Please model this.
Amino acid sequence: MSTIIGRKHEIEELERLYYSERPEFVAVYGRRRVGKTYLIKQALKDKFTFQHTGVSPVDQEDEKNRMKTQLESFYYSMLNHGLEGFKQPKSWMEAFFQLEQLLMKLDNGQRIVIFIDELPWMDTPRSRFLSAFESFWNGWCNGRDNVMLVVCGSATSWMLSNLSRSKGGLYGRLTDEIKVYPFTLKECEDYFEHENIEMSRYDIVQSHMVFGGIPYYLSYFRKGYSFERNTDMILFGSKPRLKDEFNRLFRAIFTNSDDCKKVIRLLATRNYGFTREEIASATGLPLGGGLSDTLSVLAESDFILRYSPYGKGTGEYYKLIDNFCLFWLKYVEKNQENATFINDNFTSDVMKAWRGVAFEQVCWQHISQIKRALEIGGVRTSISAWNVPGVEQKKGAQIDFLILRDDNIVNMCEMKFYSSFYTVDKEEESKMLHRAGMLKDTLSSKQTVHITLVTTFGLVHGKHSGKIQKVVTIDDLFT
Model:
């Protein structure tokens, strides 16, 4: 087996399912480009009896022929695996019947592993694909103890709605689900080390701030190049490696990609997010089932986060959490033709605001590491943000990262991404104390606020740093 970074639990689970003595039906899902297919092929290498990948809808402009294209591709996959004596199927029911005949021919008493990649792409409008697929599992696979059916898809919402939460013929049929997540900072570090790409932890954090720990994006990094040059090569210039990736990403996953992009573009403009009502008003999407569905599929696909801000009662906000989309909308879309944009601007004020927001995103994505650094891994907590608008007589307050703990301590986290140790001056101390004071006014008498600094290399202890209770560095985020 080739070296695969991380994914230890996922590999162990796939191996356990392979060696079980009953029919297994497993769904693998996660964000597009996160490495689902690579994981399955590495874990089950040389064990496939039949494998097929749905045809991407991105370059299929003619919707009327999509079903025909999918069926044709499926037929060719069966021919490649030894199907004989059958003409190209005209329906999915016929196609899965042919697959059953092929599998019976290939059955030698050993495990039959069927891998269908990008399953949601095969379910084209009015194709009755799901009915045929249900019949294939319920009528043929489920009665054979040596069958292992593995399906994979980037359209997480489709996978959840039609498989794990199915109310039809596939209700309760999945025997396992595996969600594949982006790389953590430590896994990014392991990947770069494996590829002999020398990169400091400071730059690895920056790579996560841009590419979100997505393995496919990281695979374009070249050794001998700086972080800045790699990013320019991948995203900028006349022929960047990821040209038009933002649009292709959404067209490949969502049937309502234009609506999804409208929401993403709006959420990219405000770090703590927007309410449903604000999103409807700003995008023009009707406040009802359509918007609800759009927000739901974006959340299930890990592009946005739904959370209840501290102090807002039962109100919910939606926040963009996909690092790549945030960076694309802030910089790539407007400057892609500039082949040296990052190298020219990375130390300028142009990107300072983004860097602060993006580091906060990385912190949200490494909550368990922060809790471990604070030695509260066993304490039940909730994570939130807090925003209080100012009024004429009183300043407002915005806190982007709160850890509310059951042990009556609230960590008010200040995230500071700096190229050296962070120094707190008098003005910054005053701002921290103001925010902490406003927060404390909302707490009960038994609760207290701990000002917590999350920064790159640490804190310069001085006259104005005494109120900071705990310091978390990027080294802590790599645990």
